[in-house]
Write a structure and sequence with these properties.
384 residues, alpha+beta, 7 strands, binds iron/sulfur cluster, globular
Length: 384
């Protein structure tokens, strides 16, 4: 089969499958009246940009409710540029990888400078070049390609996790996706059609999410199985090949919920330069191998806040996984004894009534602590 025919056949079969089976009601892929766009019609790049950044580490079904909440709070570029960072983090709270929210906020100002405030509601003034989008913090080639193809229906290739998996299986490649990136990009470029690239890229993503899944790919329902070497010659589950797994370290963290005589609780705001900078948390720190967790908490609070506390009963312990590490948290209720609290390792300290905790953006691990604390204190909140 000629290569060009091969690409045309894959494009056609995938687009036919998409029109019957694709996720056709993704809100940012629709016009404001809820209808599907015509070929070449421009959609709001603002809503698509926000969705694409949310989707970088998160599945579509989770992103949907956060996207709606975001669009209600910051409906356009200008409203985002005018927002306070704490407000942005609060709307993002629960989605994780908070640097994405900060980068969106920062990027909104860069985009507004580029487009101009008076033009920002006219989508034809928004950037359509790959390098213009990739100049924004946190936007890589695949995200930029997806924004441009989705908003402007232009033929830019994408290579997210789903697409990498499909293409690796089409090729039955013996290399891991990491070692095969260049080849996969070339194939994605060759595959994306000039007509209807918006639907084609979405079809690839939908195929990866619905049919060509990591475990148990449903090859008998796959529209491109006749071109797939992994299906035709091998077991698709063996692709993509994996690199040796890294051992993920586990760290033990002691956390103090410190109450004063007014029954207020102490929270601190992370330094801007740290990961999740600007977010709030309960103070604590890493356990040393030679100490028990109560000792860790007492020492960390003295080192980071300069106060003496009495470490009381344990409230909860749990594990929280990040992409590169696992943390095992042990949380104790503590009593403030003496000293003047100072933010020695944070940017700010606050004593707050526990019922106000939800007014502050906390990382996901702290949200679990708050819900347990609310149960313990008998505080009822609907939005936990
Ligand atoms: S045939 Fe199977 S492995 Fe190949 S692309 Fe389709 S679902 Fe994936």
């Amino acid at each position: 089969m000629k290569l060009i025919t091969y690409f045309n056949d894959i494009q056609n079969d995938l687009l036919i499958w998409f029109s019957d089976n694709g996720r056709l009601r993704i809100p940012w892929k629709l016009k404001s009246d809820g209808s599907r766009p015509e070929t070449g019609e421009i959609l709001s790049p603002y809503g698509i940009w926000i969705a694409e950044v949310m989707l970088q580490q998160t599945q579509l079904k989770v992103v949907l409710r956060y996207w709606y909440k975001w669009m209600m709070t910051f409906p356009n570029l200008v409203s985002l540029t005018e927002a306070d960072e704490q407000e942005v983090l609060l709307v993002w709270q629960g989605l994780g990888y908070y640097s994405r929210a900060k980068r969106l906020h920062k990027s909104s100002k860069l985009l507004l400078n580029l487009i101009g405030e008076v033009n920002s509601s006219d989508f034809s003034f928004w950037p359509v070049e790959l390098d213009q989008w990739m100049a924004l913090p946190g936007i890589g080639r695949s995200t930029a390609g997806s924004i441009i193809s989705s908003a402007f229906d232009l033929p830019l290739p994408i290579l997210d996790g789903n697409v990498k998996r499909i293409l690796s299986r089409l090729l039955a490649s013996n290399k891991s996706t990491q070692k095969n990136t260049k080849r996969l990009w070339i194939l994605s470029e060759q595959l994306v059609p000039k007509d209807n690239p918006r639907d084609f890229n979405q079809a690839l993503m939908d195929l990866g999410a619905l049919v060509c899944t990591v475990k148990n790919p449903k090859c008998s329902f796959c529209p491109i199985r006749n071109y797939c070497l992994a299906f035709l010659k091998y077991d698709p589950i063996d692709f993509p090949k994996k690199d040796m797994k890294k051992v993920i370290p586990v760290q033990e963290i002691g956390i103090a919920l410190i109450f004063n005589n007014d029954e207020e609780i102490l929270i601190d705001q992370r330094l801007e330069k740290d990961s999740m900078g600007g977010m709030w948390e309960f103070p604590g720190g890493k356990k040393e191998s030679y100490e028990c967790i109560e000792k860790t908490i007492k020492r960390e609070i003295m080192e980071e806040i300069g106060i003496d506390i009495k470490v009381g009963e344990k409230l909860i312990s749990f594990e929280h996984s990040y992409s590169h590490k696992k943390l095992y948290f042990t949380v104790h209720l503590c009593e403030f004894l003496s000293g003047k609290p100072r933010p020695l390792a944070s940017q700010k300290l606050l004593w707050v009534d526990p019922s106000r905790l939800l007014e502050f953006p906390f990382p996901a691990a702290n949200t679990k602590i708050i819900s347990t604390l609310f149960k313990y204190l008998g505080i009822e909140k609907d939005n936990l």
